TrEMBL record, chain A:
Residues 45-214 form the Heme-copper oxidase subunit III family profile domain. Its main location: membrane. It is a multi-pass membrane protein. The chain crosses the membrane at residues 38-56, 110-128, 148-176, 188-209. It is found in: Cell membrane; Membrane. One of its GO terms (biological process) is aerobic electron transport chain. GO terms for cellular component: plasma membrane. Keywords: Membrane, Transmembrane, Transmembrane helix. Gene3D superfamilies: Cytochrome c oxidase, subunit III, four-helix bundle. This is Cytochrome c oxidase subunit III. GO terms for molecular function: cytochrome-c oxidase activity. Belongs to the cytochrome c oxidase subunit 3 family.
From TrEMBL, chain B:
Gene3D superfamilies: Cytochrome c oxidase-like, subunit I domain. This is Cytochrome c oxidase subunit I. It holds the Pfam family COX1. GO terms for cellular component: membrane. The lineage of its organism: Bacteria, Pseudomonadati, Pseudomonadota, Gammaproteobacteria, Cellvibrionales.
């Protein structure tokens, strides 16, 4: 749909014209896809705002980045890589499940989704483990703004993943209940989209949280802080 | 996500039967709309009472023992927050958005009815949490509706403990509720329009609600972000916004956070919020004016463009609320300029309303009176906005009653005028009965004239330098003593206006039983919501078949036709013989 073309229509001239984008019946899948686009837009805005405030806050003298010096926790981001791998595995499993569902290989589809759920939950547990690890090192939520942002951003990201899991459960149960596993691929495609989207968000957060002072300062300078 | 296929099922299929599924746990957009509206009006009345209490204190200082400086600040805060968010946003989008979207675009319901129901109950929860703060130790927060840190969470501000926590929690819950509803509104408009209902055939009401919802979906996250971070500052002791400081002789644990950061976030939400309440009002008033002047809206396309342009621009003006916080002069220049630019599409809309009235066949019905009243109050408030948008004029006027007068005219009274116009206009559809016209007119004149009696003098008080959010004047010798008599007169007007709202409430409830049956389409309107088979519309709205749309919503007084309007679902070519 070309927005500007739409805005150029003159609806009062010809009553018969411009029926092109008129709809005949509500397609729940199309509706959900529109809603998902909005959701991803909203979530992007949310993280964008968090990140902007992060960059702005990083320019105050009490801010100590989490990576750079040998004693800082993310100078060696091995644990974070592990968690990233788990989340990526979840995305891959979803994608595989989706492909299988499209080819109507129901057993594989179910296996894919189950693995995705497993890895997603594992990711959440691993993130919690990471929190404990940091606290063990004395990096509490309120000791430094960089720490606060780390806990905050991972928590918000995790909650979004949790929300995705709830929706996924709802989708699977509904399809199951209707005995229409063949119709899984439509809604599953939307869930897969969301999964990949959260993976991308996580990669951005990962990059930001493990950045050294110089990188952060450069980004902040780019934003004018 | 819910996948309710609502398109062409026969409505009887899932017509709820028991009282509970029909009126309480209902997924029908019309019932949800009414639940939203009743809740919003209820908290709105609380806010109205609070404003009355503030006015009592200001008009007659040293008279009322139960209002002390703390409770005054608490009243100010709760009044402002409730009015802006829990009344206006909820009533315009949750109430009217819910009721009108499916009916005006020819859908059976919202596309995700379950989510819609959830949205209402979450909203109700946010209201309960908000009102609960009146009953916790320390009472509600008195930080002002802007909730600026550091004072919002420091000792010395009333409600700095539980009050602010509940406020932030309630806002977060509200935002979740709004997001669930908002997803429904935009998706329904984009995906559930009936045959022939192209975007450019939608009534302006829908354009206004749609654009406002998009603004809300993108702006509320900023409030959510600031609420979450402030909550962490308060509860866990992080220093997102809290600078290192001394409070009551003690060094606090906060390190170098930035209160200005909060202001940016808040106003990045706060300014679009003005248009979240204004755009639906713009849309609805356009339709009311066209219907009651029996004339097509002047410049429909321009009106749509203006709505979209205002929506876009509203995201780049936020820092005009922060001139006194200090900023780089280039930014001051930038924000002053964008603020003035946004006046252009806004002014276009005002001209178009006036031009629609010009040579129209104006029926001075109650909705039309309120619509015309709106044109006055909105123009008035808009003009003072042009003053305040300029840095040099804003600096001396900031935080005076001039600002209070300005924003009440433009975003307090004006949307309320439209809400009354809309309630009177759609009352016959919603209830199937007419309201009492005499009472309605009395309500209009009390409200309209009373509004001016309240807010015109406030501009003058602002020039004198009377500061806002002050419990009492003391040691302000530059303010002449006569300002007090003005304050007393404002208070009396405010009480009269407040009481006259009882006329409205009485009318609404009395007419439910005793009003004349309205019949189909009493105003002779063209848009779809008036063309339902039953009045009030039943569950599923349209009977067995969805309507088919052949024209835009403004075919009034078309030459060469019999009636002076052609409904949107009327197939006949317009003016075929003429
Ligand atoms: C009869 C109707 C109303 C009266 C008499 C009234 C009166 C007042 C008064 C006395 C104040 C406090 C001024 C001060 O001490 O600084 C105030 C503040 C405010 N009012 Fe109203 N008001 C009314 C309706 C509304 C409406 C409909 C809105 C909706 C937008 C609204 C929004 C606000 C806001 C945002 C504030 C600022 C609160 C703050 O400073 O934190 N008011 N009003
Ligand atoms: Cu503004």
């Amino acid at each position: 749909m070309n927005f500007f073309k739409t805005l150029g229509e003159k609806p009062w001239l010809d009553p018969t014209m411009a029926n092109s984008d008129a709809l005949v019946a509500v397609d729940p899948l199309l509706a959900s896809r529109t809603a998902l686009r909005f959701i991803m837009g909203i979530v992007s805005v949310l993280f964008f705002l968090f990140i902007i405030t992060y960059l702005s806050r990083s320019q105050y003298p009490d801010f100590q980045a989490l990576a750079g010096q040998p004693w800082q926790p993310f100078t060696d981001p091995g644990r974070l890589w592990l968690n990233t791998g788990i989340l990526a595995a979840s995305s891959v499993a979803m994608q595989w499940g989706l492909w299988s569902a499209r080819r109507e290989q129901i057993n594989r589809a179910v296996a894919g989704v189950s693995m995705a759920v497993f890895f997603a939950v594992l990711f959440l547990v691993a993130q919690l483990e990471l929190w404990r690890h940091l606290q063990g090192m004395g990096y509490y939520v309120n000791t430094n703004p960089a720490n606060s942002y780390f806990y905050l951003l991972t928590a918000v990201h995790g909650l979004h993943l949790l929300g995705g899991l709830l929706v996924l459960a709802n989708v699977v149960f509904r399809v199951w209940y209707d005995g229409a596993l063949t119709r899984l691929s439509g809604p599953l495609a939307l869930c897969t989209h969301y999964w990949h989207f959260l993976l991308v968000v996580w990669l951005l957060l990962f990059a930001l949280l493990t950045s050294r002072v110089e990188t952060i300062n450069m980004l902040a300078a780019l934003c004018g802080f | 996500m819910q996948h309710a296929a609502i398109a062409d099922q026969t409505p009887e299929l899932h017509d709820p039967h028991s009282f509970i599924t029909r009126y309480i746990w209902s997924q029908d957009h019309k019932v949800i709309a009414i639940q939203y509206s009743l809740t919003a009006v209820f908290v709105g009345l609380v806010a109205l009472v609070l404003s009355g209490l503030m006015r009592l204190q200001l008009g007659f200082p040293d008279t009322f023992d139960f209002i002390d400086p703390s409770s005054y600040l608490q009243f100010v805060t709760m009044h402002g927050m409730i009015m802006v968010i829990y009344l206006l946003t909820a009533l315009l989008l949750g109430g009217f958005g819910n009721y009108l979207i499916p009916l005006m675009i020819g859908a059976r319901d919202m596309v995700f009815p379950y989510l819609n129901m959830l949205s209402y109950w979450t909203y109700l929860l946010s209201v309960i949490v908000l009102l609960a703060s009146f009953f916790v130790p320390g009472g509600p927060t008195g930080a002002g509706w802007t909730l600026y840190p550091p004072q919002a969470i420091l000792q010395g501000t009333p409600g700095y403990d539980w009050g602010i926590i509940l406020m932030l929690a309630s806002l977060a819950i509200f935002i979740i509720a709004f997001t669930m509803g908002g997803l429904n509104y935009v998706t329904t408009v984009l995906q559930a329009r009936t045959h022939g209902m192209t975007l450019m055939r939608m009534p302006l009401t829908i354009w206004g609600i749609f654009t406002a919802t998009v603004l809300g979906l993108l702006a509320f996250p900023a409030l959510l972000v600031s609420a979450i971070m402030m909550m962490l500052d308060k509860v866990i002791g992080t220093s997102f916004f809290m600078p290192a400081l001394l409070s009551l002789g003690e060094t606090l644990d906060y390190t170098g956070g930035s209160p200005i950061l909060f202001q940016h976030l808040f106003w990045f939400f706060g300014h679009p919020e003005v248009y979240i309440v204004a755009l639906p009002a713009f849309g609805m008033v356009s339709d009311v004016i066209a219907t009651h002047a029996r004339k097509n809206i002047f410049g429909y396309r321009m009106m749509v463009w203006a709505i979209v342009a205002i929506g876009g621009l509203s995201f780049v003006v936020w820092a005009h609320h922060m001139y006194v916080s200090g900023m780089h002069p280039a930014f001051g220049f930038f924000f002053a300029t964008t603020t003035l630019i946004i006046a252009v599409p806004t002014a276009i809309k005002v001209y178009n309303w006036v031009l629609t009235l010009w040579r129209g066949n104006i029926h001075l019905t109650v909705p039309m009176l309120f619509a015309i009243g709106f044109i006055f109050t909105f123009t008035h408030g808009g003009l003072t906005g042009l003053f305040l948008g300029n840095v040099t004029i804003d600096l001396p006027l900031s935080d005076t009653y001039f600002v209070v007068a300005h924003f009440h005219m433009v975003m307090g009274v004006s949307p309320i005028m439209v809400l009354f116009a809309a309630i009177y206009h759609w009352y016959p559809l919603i209830t199937g009965r007419m309201f009492h016209v005499g009472l309605g007119k009395a309500h209009f004149w009390f409200t309209f004239l009373g509004t001016y009696a309240i807010y015109l003098p406030m501009h003058y008080l602002g020039f004198l330098g009377v500061p806002r959010r002050y419990f009492a004047m003391d040691g302000t010798d530059f303010i002449p003593a006569s300002a007090q008599s003005l304050n007393a007169s404002i208070t009396i007007s405010a009480l009269i206006v407040g009481l006259s709202q009882l006329l409205f409430l009485y009318n609404v409830f009395w007419s439910l039983r005793n009003g004349k049956p309205a019949g189909h389409n009493p105003w002779g309107a063209t848009s779809l919501e008036w063309q339902t088979p039953e009045v009030p519309p039943r569950h599923g709205n349209w009977g067995p078949e969805l309507p088919r749309v052949y024209r835009w919503a403004y075919d009034y007084s078309v030459p060469g036709t019999e009636a002076d309007f052609i409904p949107q679902n009327h197939p006949e070519q317009k003016g075929a013989e003429g």
